[in-house]
Amino acid sequence: MPIVKMYCTATCPYCVMAEKLLNRKGVTTIEKIRVDLQPEQRDAMIALTGRRTVPQVFIGEQHIGGFDDLSELDAAGDLEPLLAA
Predict the structure, then answer these.
(1) Cα(13)–Cα(71) distance, rounded to whole angstroms?
(2) Are the C-beta atoms of 59 and 82 separated by less than 8 Å?
(3) Which of 40, 49, 56, 67 is a plausible cystine mate for 18, CB 3.0–4.6 Å?
(4) In sequence order, what E strands does 1-85 have?
(5) Is residue 11 packed enough to be buried (19+ CB in 10 Å), middle (13-18) or exposed (0-12)?
């Protein structure tokens, strides 16, 4: 399973929902980068993604996007193949 990385904050409900969706898909380890505790990481996230909001999810080197993007990927049946790679 590829490394799953998520830029997040402690109080973001969409971050919690993204983590729960990934857990349901068998992801047991998520590398969380807390932009609320490390503000410089928000700048890094914006540079990588062009987005300012959390969560921002990466599967391996592929940027998935936020919770809505992750959920749409799952609904289309494309999330599990990415996680299985």
Answers:
(1) 14
(2) yes
(3) 67
(4) 4-8, 30-34, 56-59, 62-65
(5) exposed
Residue with the bigger pLDDT between 56 and 1: it is: 56
DSSP assignment letter at 36? T
Amino acid at site 27: V
Parse the chain into domains and list their residue ranges: 4-84
For the record, the structure tokens of 78 come out as: 């494309």
For domain 4-84, say whether CATH 3.40.50.300 is its number: no
Strand partners, 34: 8
Cis peptide before 55 (omega within 30 of 0): yes
